[in-house]
Structures are given as C-alpha cells and as structure tokens.
Amino acid sequence: MFKNEFNLNINHEAFLHFKVDQAKHIIRRAFEVFGGGLAVAFSGGKDSLATLHLAMQSIGRNVKVIYNNTTVEFPETVKYVKRLADEWNFELIMTKPKKPFFEAVKEVGWATHENRWCCRPYKEEPAYEVISQIGITAEITGTTRTESIYRRYLKPIMPPRKEPYLIRVHPLYDWNEAEVWEYIRENNLPYNPLYDMGYKRIGCWCCPLNGPSHYKRLKKTHPSLFNFLMEFKPPHPVIMKLSNILDKSHN
Asked: pTM for the whole thing?
C-alpha cells in the first residue's frame, strides 16, 4: 500500500469515528433535554438501524422505539423488526392505521407524485396518535442530508413547523450511504435481509412511486405479491405499464 493511500484510509477511518462521536453527543444531549419524552423512529432500514444502535450505545436500552406498520410493509421487514426487538431487548411500539391500505386504494385509487394521499393516514397519523398518548416530545430519526435535495439543509435538531409539535433529532444528518454501511459492517449489525435481495428502499412494497425496476425485482423475489398486484383493481399504474410492455414484446 502506498503512503498516500495509507494516510487516506487512516483519515477516512478517523473521520467516521469523529462522526460517530458527534452523533452520540447529539443523542445524549437530546436525552438530557427530553428524557423519557424521547423516542427513536425505526423503519427497519439501514439508516434507522445505525441510528437505533447509536441511541442504545448512548442512552441505554430503555429507549422507546416506534415502528409504523402501514399494512403494506414487506413481510421480511416486519419479521426483522420484531426479531431485532427481541434480540436487542428494546421497547417496540408498533403503530397501525385505521384501515388496511388496499381498502383505501379501492375507495380513492392509487397515490401519484402529484397526490401522495397515503403518507398522512398510513405513516404520520398513526405515529402521531401513539406519540401523543405516551407523551413523546422529541423523535430521533435516521434522516440524512444526502437522501434528497429537499433535505440538504437538514440540521441536527429541527423545531416543529406544524402540528403535532414534535422536535426532530437527526444524529446522522451529515452522513452518507457509504458511511452508514461502514458503521453497520464495523459493528456487525444485523441488517434487513431485503438489501441482500437487491432492494435499495425497504418501505411499502406496492408504492406506485417506485419505478419499474422495483417491480421487476418484486416479480423475482416475491412472485405472490406481484401476482396479487396483477389481479388487483383498480390496476396498479406501474404494473399496468409493465404488462403492456410485456404484451408488446410477445407480439
């Protein structure tokens, strides 16, 4: 190994350790301020896994962990979240919406980029209801600046802009994807098995905002879920496009 390469690796490792220390400091400071009113939002994804591990390293296993089950989570994700709660021995609070997702789709149709009607009743409202019931005033998330251009101004602690008045704490605000994976590998953390199947996002498996590549993969890894969407009415917009492409290729 050349000297410059060696120094680069040392500096990179030191920089990650600096970010880890910084993230733990943010979490500890939040706990000092909010105490039992602090919870961790856990999606079962890589970012929230690193965040949860950092939180437990910083403030112990008494932290409350909130997982939103939209009723259209991958089966592997639900099993993974429950297994991790058992293995790591943390308090898992699982929320659920008022009605199954597909019932709502039959009533109002699929969500679109212009009308993302599903996020509020299936992600936000169930969580807010539980949060208000158990007295949560601040939530630690795995959100990072690199996720999208809309989050480039993310700060470690963000005040609420609307009801419910919940403080957001972002210990990984300046991390990138490579650093998250390096932290997971370095600490030998058990991550969601969907990543090894090639999925980049592990949220709602039928989200119409996912592109065709997601559903081509779904057909291979979860044929029963794919076939369910093929038969479902109203037709799934992405599945419908894929079906048309396949039909044309056979003609």
From this structure: 0.89
